[in-house]
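re: that chain from earlier
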Amino acid sequence: MQNPRCSFLILFIQLVSIISFCHYTRQIRGEDNNTSAVKVDVGIILDLATDVGKVMNISILLALADYHANASRGAIKIDPHFRDSKKDDVEAASAAIYLLKDVQVQAIFGPQMSTQTGFVIDIGNRIKVPIISPATSPSLSVKENPFFIRGALPSSCQTKAIAAIVRNYDWRQVVIIYEDNSYGTGIVPYLTDALLEINTLVSYRSVISPSANDDQILRELYKLNTMQTRVFVVHLQPYLASRLFLKAKEAGMMSSGYAWIITDVLTSLLDSVDHSVIESSMQGVLGIKPYIPRSNELNNYTKRWKKRFRQEYPDTDPVELNVYGLWAYDSITALTKAIAKVGTTIIPKFKKADTKENLTDLDALGTSELGSLLLDSMQNTTLKTGLSGEFRIIDGELQPSPYEIVNIIGKGERSVGFWTENDGISHKLKMNGKTAKSMNEQLAAIIWPGESTVVPRGWEVPTSGKKLRVGVPVKGGLKQFIKVEIDAKTQAVTATGFIPDVFKEVIQSLPYAIPCEFIPFSIEHSPTSQDYHDLVYKISSKEYDAVVGDVTILASRSKYVDFTLPFSESGISAVVPVRDDRKNAWIFLKPLKNELWITTGAFFVFIGFVVWVLEHRVNKEFRGPKHKQVGMIFWFSFSTLVFAHRERVTSNFTRFVLIVWVFVVLVLTSSYTASLTSMLTVQQLQPTITDLNDLIKNGEYVGYQEGSFVKDVLKRMNFDSSKFRSYRSLEEYNDALSRGSLNGGVGAIVDELPYLRLFLNKYCRKYIMVGPTYKAAGFGFVRMSHSSDVSKRVYICLVWFGLLNNLLFSPNFWQAFPKGSPLVPDVSRAVLQVMEGELMNNIIQKWFGNETDCPQKDIMAMESSLTLDSFKGLFLIAGVSAGSALLLFFLIFVYQNREILATDDSVWQKLSAIANVFDEEKDNSNSMSEEPSEGNEIQTATLFAESEPSTEILPELPLQSPEIRISDGLGASPAAEVFSTTEPGTPVHETITGSIEAR
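^ sequence. v structure.
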């Protein structure tokens, strides 16, 4: 039997062993006393030999330390596994395979280089493990790689900020200098598109190999210096960029007049560039970088970071914390939040493939079950208080933040402004990360290369010693515009005239010198000789750098040139002879238009007829034979024209009609008199034709300038080509127009406005401009648009616009400078300067004289004939009044003779009866006199005429009728003023006797 003490000791030992074993197994499984913990492995691939790799390494360690320090008991443990890619793409790929195969990590941060990231992303897509990389090349697409999450801003985000700087200083061309790898080439398409949106061209792309030596870099810079563009955008990593700027300083390209812009990869890592390089070769450079808002958290973190960096790398020179380190910290923080969000229920493991046939090493790994869950949580996450600002990932892409624009001065940089996509450039930034709204959208004062405060123009004329070869047309014709003379001894070419003078003034107004030499180009008027098309094509064939002359820009020629602001009006019109209407024998008919003459005559007849109808029954003046009555109708109305009518009217209706009609006649005669007076006293320059279509209808011959494109325009206007005649001088124009089409001349000259104005200035009183003016763009300067060696020089071409709108682009197109020539803005400003000053007036006065000496020479005289529209109201009033009086008279007449209409006779008999009644003289014996004072005397005369003669009362009366005698004495119409009675022997006889005795 065992001792009890021994048994108790054995049990105690067994219990301790069991407890120790359980505790040991818990530690192996990663469990604490009460809660089991899950470990998640995360791979880190960095170039630990680089400063950026070291910066991100410290940031990742601090991010994980902060996570574990703040994690609760039982939280997921994140175990990092660091691998060094050693600046090699193969090493990076090998590190990724090792981490996935041997460690089975659930996520990978890195690699940091864009060239290393592509293959690692492919592996992550295959095994379904998220790859969180700070690679910035836009060629690495998040959309095409579902398991790729970019933990940094792509370099394409800064292209619009660069374009905003270029537009802010109105630079028209830039040169891009970039690295010859996927990282460098990825930005080029995006930057080119951003510049094209602001009408700025990439004149040249300079590719620098990372392995290029100093001599190769220097040769490339010398090549750039021979070009005219002076704005350079540099997209190189710090080491290669340092060598470039050192050689640029050596080549004299860091002096006044040059502009350099560096991208964020260099601006953000400027601390890694040797300070001696910055001080000697990078002064005045502009740079952009993501804006990092200052905060207490960032300040505290920076102190922790520096302390940890000295602990990890005690033998390394101090390195400053940069934006890539902040992005790495925020990316790992977002990853830890995603892992915590997934929870502890998932045990991380890889799902092996079902089949084992033909499996590669990658296929044998299987796929991660946790990777897809992490991806869903990481693709859309936001850190409101990230160290780099608002760290916001949407669809796997880090969203842009404001960019800061800096100017490199001394040993460091100075902030000069900010840029955001919504607000553009501004000098200040609000606390919420948006640009401050202000009227001043310019950057702060900038010190440019060469310690200059003057904004670089952006381009310079190459100092190759060659002169600008300017072609000038040699032809006959109008010498006022261009005349070319060649010295017989020296063969020196001299160009004079309006066009060369304007060209010279514009060139002299430029802020730099452009030496020019004129080269004559012969133009003859024959089917086989050279023409203006050949002259323009000399530019594209590199024989000429420019053309100065009266060259019309056609649609086909516009493919080779760009246009500046036009400085002269142009278009096509016609000139015809004028006639002086004062010598016309029938000028008295011109004051009134034909329709007004006809309407006036018709109303005269109508008013005469109305008056006759109203007066026919009651007024003897409107009675008598038919021919007398017809004559009275015409005579009475037309006599009112000069107020010469002597016939008295008795009807109130007639008086009402005449009141209105006399007023109408007064207005008509006054207007006619004024218009005729104007015609006889003012010279009327009326054209022989008023429209170009009249030339076609009349079969007239048409003249044009020899060699001009106007001939083709006339053909398009359906003119008969057999009716064309060409001339070379203003004198020939005058002779042809003077003779006319019937005598070997022409009916009109069709030409461009400047030539016609010159012609009218000389013969202003003989000819006039007619017809519509077909507008064009006018004079302007142009350059070549195709990319060739010649296009890298200065191209100026003074051209003449004179084609119809359907043959040219619109004038606004020429003013928009779509080709982006760097010379166009300067020349346009010089053109405006010449136009606004006295120079242009002096040139015009010199070659064309004073146009004010010829008044109204190109404006057709205003039409002075009166039209019916001006008198419609008067005629309407006269017609309505006369018609109303006639209608009322007719109604009263019908009512008075209603017994005729009530009979049983036929309609014809009734009408005949009414007509007979109308033709009879009205019996006024029962009517009262309108004038009582005179009515007694007329009444006496009438009664005396109707009674038997009495020798006792009137012993000495002549044999003529007493009625006529008394009527003549009183001057009253006997028929209208009658008053009679049927009772003889009344006391009226006493009144008659008294009246006679009183007389």
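The radius of gyration is 54 Å.
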